Amino acid sequence: MSTRITSTPGSAAMETVRLGQTDLRVTPIAYGTWQFGGEWGAVDEPAAVEAIQRALALGVNFFDTAQAYGFGVSERILGGALAAELRSRRDELVIATKGGLRIDDERGLVRDSSPEWLRRGVEESLKNLRIDHIDLYQVHWPDAEVPFAETGAALAQLIEEGKIRHVGVSNFSVEQMAELSRTTAVETAQPPYHLFRREIEDTVLPYAAENDIGVLVYGPLAHGLLGGTMDAETSFPDDDWRSKSSAFEGETFAHNLAAVKRLGQFAGERGASVSQLAIAWALANPAVDVAIVGARRLEHLQESIGGAGLELGTEDLEEIERIMVDSTPVGGPSPETV
Ligand SMILES: NC(=O)c1ccc[n+]([C@@H]2O[C@H](COP(=O)([O-])OP(=O)(O)OC[C@H]3O[C@@H](n4cnc5c(N)ncnc54)[C@H](OP(=O)(O)O)[C@@H]3O)[C@@H](O)[C@H]2O)c1
Q1: Domains located in the chain, CATH noted
Q2: Global pTM exceeds 0.70
Q3: Which candidate among 42, 185, 186, 313 keeps its CA 20 to 30 Å from the CA of 140?
Q4: d(CA 336, CA 334)
């Protein structure tokens, strides 16, 4: 669903793709900044700024954040790190953020796609990011309590005012995307997708391909599992959400680590790392335009960006299927489920 061309965002050359029917040209790797919101443990702000600037220097022109990533924390770090570039070459950078989650005094994190909350979210995101328009504004999670027509009308109005350029959704089913599309064009989808989580292959991806919707997938490294640096003894600090995730403990974890090891051996034979193989695998699906990668460590970031340059042929993909045949799918609720 994309036209691939070569351009030179930042100082390094990287191929860019057009996102669905939008005029946005983005690198196939987006740098994800959930890691800088606090849900992955304490945030080292200078290190985060350095990592964002390194991503830019390595040629990445597409950055993904959200209001809910620390309610302003991640957006402020991103806006600050990119401030000079956003002043000098705004048109070459593509900033995606999300709204529609709110902290409720009694219920904690809740979905809220009401026109009032979305508008307030856009205003706050613009301020935090230090920009006058958001290239891609995504509804973070579908909200069953607000009619899609109201959400769509609010987003259409924000486009009209020039505050946001394009509307996308995240964690939406096909039916929910179709419903929202009746009021405003849904131009992108951001679903979870990695080697252990593939349900969108039968749902969102065919729909997106048929309707020329840009697809940016999150969690291509299974939130670190496919980084190849974990073993059965790996544990996480209490303030890292993975310390409470069943994907990172017990039998499922041990079992899937064995698959990661075999994938790593196969990647090594191809002169690649397992993280590069995992990202290349996600991007090899013709309906996927972009893999959003999170990484706090510079060496992780640098290595993973290399996944965009790894071409996988039919035989490679078949071998990966064979390796994965015994793995345990990690589906169900996403880490950010609210
Ligand atoms: N819309 C949604 O609901 C939603 C949900 C989840 C994520 N997202 C977006 O997608 C982005 C990416 O997803 P994600 O961060 O959950 O998962 P991910 O990209 O699959 O995994 C990120 C983790 O992988 C590790 N990693 C990266 N490269 C590595 C390498 N070469 N070797 C070893 N480990 C490596 C990083 O470790 P270090 O941090 O230690 O470097 C990082 O913690 C997020 O930042 C966010 O922007 C959106």
Answers
A1: 4-324 (3.20.20.100)
A2: yes
A3: 42
A4: 5
